[in-house]
Structures are given as structure tokens and as C-alpha cells.
Amino acid sequence: MAGNGVFADILDGDVYKYYSDGEWKKSSSGKSVSIVNPTTRKTQYKVQACTQEEVNKVMETAKVAQKSWAKTPLWKRAELLHKAAAILKDHKAPIAECLVKEIAKPAKDAVTEVVRSGDLVSYCAEEGVRILGEGKYLVSDSFPGNERTKYCLTSKIPLGVVLAIPPFNYPVNLAVSKIAPALIAGNSLVLKPPTQGAVSALHMVHCFHLAGFPKGLISCVTGKGSEIGDFLTMHPSVNCISFTGGDTGIAISKKAGMIPLQMELGGKDACIVLEDADLDLVAGNIIKGGFSYSGQRCTAVKVVLVMESVADALVEKVNAKLSKLTVGPPEENCDITPVVSESSANFIEGLVMDAKEKGATFCQAYKREGNLIWPLLLDNVRPDMRIAWEEPFGPVLPVIRINSVEEGIHHCNASNFGLQGCVFTKDINKAILISDTMETGTVQINSAPARGPDHFPFQGLKDSGIGSQGITNSINMMTKIKSTVINLPSPSYTMG
To answer: Catalytic positions (predicted)?
Structure first.
């Protein structure tokens, strides 16, 4: 059970503590932040409302801890990460329980997220030992005009303190995707979890605590973004920010200063369907890609761009599959569960009403109860409708009928987002040509967009982000190159 057993230390009465200097603590503010269960719409959990002074203390301990951690051998860092991964997977049930109650993630998917997170941590430990264990050796005479009088040795060194800010929809997995690379690279880590998902993240952090990481190396502060958000992201002790979320990331990037940024800020992932596509395959992927976790995924299919000649047939197949989706509470493993908050549900409803006013075809009746929105396919959507461009982050999917491939590509590239996209066709030559013209970080051919497997590169163009994720890329961006040059008094050539 959440907050019980090995997790008893993280709870004080009905308020979860924050984590600093290897200890679970109550905030001096005496205040808490409530977390509302999306299903019941009642307060489920409470977390500490940390102060700016407590953030200062966290940063100071993180700086000190990082210096000694950087001197810890790679194999020891990896050993602790493997231990944390095992503990995380051993305690998947209570963490999954939190995910169900905090963010209405279906129970089976909640367990999958925790197990996947453990696997990510272990993989990162292995990958880190390999790529950080290698350096480069350069000699000077490869550049014109030089003799071999200089040997250059390069290695990857940590940045310092990494600030990690994951989103509500994967508060465990997208937290460890930042934590594990930072730690294996020799950095310390300060985690600011989302409010919805904070308790899941606190349970995850306790698994790292139980693994025996040094005090101060990992910290987790909770509280209102309005009070500590800017203070965290603009803190002079932060040497790197890894953020996943929405428009807030753009504001962070403008304020952060001269530090490395890794940002994934959402998408409007287009699904382009050609005339020769396997429509059964397409329909299955639209359901999986557009409606899993109620569409609350950055890589969800957000707009279908289908050739007019096959549009009727595709819409019919999607509607048939849509009618079989179960709708209800996450505890019952329903396919469609409540969206994360009332404000999210209201935003989605606004997009739906705009489409209705402008003449979209409703393939199902729009239905909403509280935060629960029934799955809806909108056909004959036009570019003047908000849903054609804005990211609903809910179980509503627009279909735009196109008369040429060029029309579909134009719509995809006209978006301010550029995270992922997909194209369905049996002609691999066409698929590659279309992929090359789509302005997105990733294009999936004959499959829905997806983040993963977790070692694959994951990045967005335009407003969808900065930098690239994926285990290897994250390790690399959380390090910098250090060069040492040996100068010889005279040229020296091996076997010369």
C-alpha cells in the first residue's frame, strides 16, 4: 500500500514529505498542496509546499554531494542504479496504486510504467559504463602544418547539478529517464515532480533512497510552481535542466541562461494515410495511438490526414473499433479513463464545441461526466477549426480528408509543433520520401507515433523541444568534453 511498509517514512499524518540531504522532511512553511483524484474529483493526497529557502538548502547539498559523487568509480555508480531498479520493480504495486489515484492511469498500464522505469534505469547503468568509459586520443599531425608534438586526450565529465521536471502523464518513467542518465554521468539531481503525479514520484525517489545513494545526491522538492517554479529554473546552482511538459518549457528556456537544456514540449502528431495503406493496420494504430491513456500522451496521434478515396472506409473501421473501447474508472482497467483535471476536460470541450459550431461531423455523440470524456472521432475537420492545430490531450481525434500527399505534408509542416508523425503505405519508397519532407523529430512508418523503446533517440523540432532524449543522448547531454593536451619537446612517431 502507498505510504505504508517501507514507504512509511515518507508520510507525515496525511501529508507526504519532501526529500533532502538523504532524509524525508516536513516543510517549514506548514502548508501543503492538495492532489485531486481525477476520477472522484476529491482530494486524494497532500504534499509539502516547500519554500525558496528550502530550495536553497537542497541546491547547496546537491553541489557538495556532486563533487564526491564525481569521484565515485563508474562501476559503483552503475551498481547502485541496478539496485535502485530492482527495488523499484519489487515495489511496483504501491507505486502503481498512486498512479491510478493521482492521474487515473489504468491499473495495468500503471504497473507497466513502473516496470519499464526499472528496466530503463538498468539499461542506463549498462550504457553509461560503456560510453563514459571511452575517451578519444588525437594527434596533432593530422592537421596541416603540424608535426606530431601534441597528444590530446578527451573524456566526458559531469555538468554538476541537474534539475529534472517531468510531466503528469508519466511521472515515474519520465522522471527516471532524467535521473538515471544524470547520476551515471556523475551529476547530482534535483527533482521537481508535477503536482498530479508527485506522490508516485516520491515513492520512486524512496526506492533510490533505499538503494543507498549518498546523502544530498538526489533531492525531491514539492510545491506550487507559482512559488518555487521560477526560483528553481533560474537558480544559479543549476547546471542543466531536463524538462518535459508544455508551454512552460518555452518560458523556462527564455529565463534559464547559459546552461544546457533538454526539452520536450508536446506535439500535434499527424498520421498520413495513403490510398494503398492497409486500412485494418491503420485503424488499429489510430485506436492505439490516438486513444490509449485517453489521448494524454505527447506522442498520441493528434490528427489523421487521409486520402479522400479511402477516407470513408477508414472512418468506418476506426468507428467500429472505437465502439468497443471501455469507458470508466482506472481501477477497472478501462480503455478510456478520466482526464487529469477539470481544467483539461474544459479545454477539450472547448475544442469540441468549436468544431461543432464550424460543421465537423461527429461520428459519436459528445458525452462527458465530470473529467470523463467518451472517445470521439471528428470527421470532415477543416483547417479553420482549432482542433486541426491545437493539442487536445484527450480522447478526441480529428480527421482531415486530403486530395494529395502534398496537401497532407503541408498541413503537417504548417504546425508549430514537430515532435513525431507517421505515414501508412505499402510503398516503402513513397514512405521514405514523405518521411524526409515531414518536419518532425521522428517519423514512424506503418505504426503509430511512440516514445520508445527508451534507448531510441526522441526529439522534437520547432516548438516541440530542444535537444534529444533517449538513454544515450541523455547521458551525452548531461556531460561536457574535457581535453588534456600533452606537449612534446620534439616530434614522436609510433614505430618511426
So the answer is: 264
Which one-letter DSSP state was computed for residue 302? -
151 membership: H or E segment, kind and range: strand 150-158
Based on the residue annotation, tell me whether 264 is a catalytic residue of this protein.
yes
| Res 10 pLDDT > 80 | yes
Sole residue written with cell 522505469: 117
| Beta carbons of 421 and 289 less than 8 angstroms apart | no
Residue 496 predicted with pLDDT over 80: no
Q: For residue 167, what are the contacts with CB-CB under 8 A and spacing of at least 6?
A: 174, 194, 197, 244, 245, 246, 298
Quick check: helix, strand or coil at residue 342?
helix
Mean pLDDT score of the chain:
97
**The three grid cell numbers given for residue 32, joined into one nine-digit string:** 501543503
Give the residue among 95, 66, 47, 301 at the shortest CA–CA distance from 206.
Answer: 95
For the record, the C-alpha cell of 129 comes out as: 559504463
DSSP E strand stretches across 2-129: 11-12, 15-16, 18-20, 23-25, 32-36, 43-48
Q: What is the pTM of this model?
A: 0.97
Which residue from 363, 18, 56 is spatially nearest to 198, judged by alpha carbons? 18
CA separation for the pair 212, 352 (Å, rounded): 50
Q: Which of 95, 452, 412, 475 lies closest to 272, judged by CA? A: 412
Q: Would the pLDDT of 73 be above 80? A: yes
In 3D space, the residue among 207, 177, 258 whose CA is nearest the CA of residue 92 turns out to be 207
Pairing of strands 261-264, 240-244: parallel
Q: Decide if 8 contacts 21 (C-beta within 8 A).
A: no
User: Across the chain, how many H-helices and E-strands are there?
Assistant: 14, 28
Q: Give the tens place of pLDDT for each residue, 270-292.
A: 999 999 999 999 999 999 999 99
Q: Are 267 and 244 in contact (CB under 8 A)?
A: no
Q: Tell me which residue of 454, 383, 23 sits closest to 206, measured CA to CA.
A: 23
Q: What is the amino acid identity at position 390?
A: E
Which residue has 530503463 as its cell numbers?
Answer: 120
Task: Report which DSSP code applies to 138.
Answer: E
8 Å CB contact between 119 and 127: no
pLDDT tens for 447-481 read 999 998 999 999 999 999 999 999 999 999 999 99
Return the C-alpha cell found at 89.
520493480
Nearest alpha-carbon partner for 164 in 482, 477, 481: 477
CA–CA–CA angle 294, 289, 417 (5° rounding): 95
**Cell numbers for 476:** 551525452
From residue 205, alpha-carbon distances to 35, 87, 194, 331 in Å are 18, 11, 14, 24
Catalytic hit among 102, 113, 127, 264? 264
CB-count burial class (<10 Å; 0-12, 13-18, 19+) for 113: buried
Residue range 296-305, pLDDT digits in tens? 999 999 999 9
